[in-house]
């Protein structure tokens, strides 16, 4: 991430925390920085192991609750885990995800036509739709290569 973008996101982080009455503690800041530094939609376990390097006394529960709080106040999105641990995404811009059903890799992609999907009327009657995201599933190139190598033996 570019330094300017990093600074802008940290400033936005501070403003959102202030708006929601959350103190900007060193632990919260460390959790948020780990999310910004990650490009692979980390789980709470992954964030915990990285934050713990700088804060050895931080508990998993603290990191997990911090991530859930970040979700509730709109700092991050929860990415669909398909039966696995929740994964977190600090990228709040309009984008979609593709999941590898073999290794669990999640990649972001932008496809503008998907941004204008109109929810069915029956859903709009029962829900106030606040966002839409398309999720594609498949098998990534690395897993395809592994599968092809294993079948040739």
Derived from helix and strand composition plus strand pairing, the structural class reads alpha+beta
The total beta strand count reads 5
Biggest sheet record: 3 strands, mixed
Identify low-pLDDT runs. Answer: none
Relevant CATH superfamily of the largest domain = Winged helix-like DNA-binding domain superfamily/Winged helix DNA-binding domain
State the separation between the terminal residues, measured CA to CA.
Answer: 42 Å
Order of helices and strands: HHHHEEEEHHEH
* β-sheet strand percentage: 5-15%
- Give me the oligomer status: single chain
The CATH class name of the largest domain reads Mainly Alpha
The dominant shape is globular
Helix content: 40-55%
Helix tally? 7
Under the CATH scheme, which architecture of the largest domain would be assigned? Orthogonal Bundle
Mean pLDDT over the residues: 90
- List the strand order in the largest sheet: 4-3-5
Can you tell me the number of structural domains? 2
List key phrases describing it.
single chain, 3-stranded mixed beta sheet, 7 helices, Arc Repressor Mutant, subunit A, two-stranded antiparallel ribbon, 5 strands, alpha+beta, 12% strand, 153 residues, Dna Ligase, domain 1, 48% helix, 2 domains
């Amino acid at each position: 991430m570019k330094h300017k973008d990093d600074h802008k996101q940290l400033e936005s982080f501070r403003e959102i925390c202030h708006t929601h009455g959350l103190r900007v503690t060193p632990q919260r800041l460390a959790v948020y920085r780990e999310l910004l530094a990650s490009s692979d939609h980390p789980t709470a376990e992954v964030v915990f192991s990285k934050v713990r390097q700088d804060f050895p006394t931080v508990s998993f529960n603290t990191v997990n609750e911090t991530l859930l709080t970040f979700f509730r106040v709109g700092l991050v999105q929860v990415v669909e885990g398909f039966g696995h641990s929740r994964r977190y995404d600090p990228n709040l811009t309009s984008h979609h995800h593709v999941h590898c059903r073999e290794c669990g890799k999640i990649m972001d992609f932008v496809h503008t036509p998907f941004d204008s999907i109109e929810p069915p009327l029956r859903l709009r009657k029962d829900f106030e739709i606040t966002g839409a995201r398309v999720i594609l599933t498949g098998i990534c190139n690395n897993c395809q290569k592994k599968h092809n190598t294993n079948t040739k033996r």
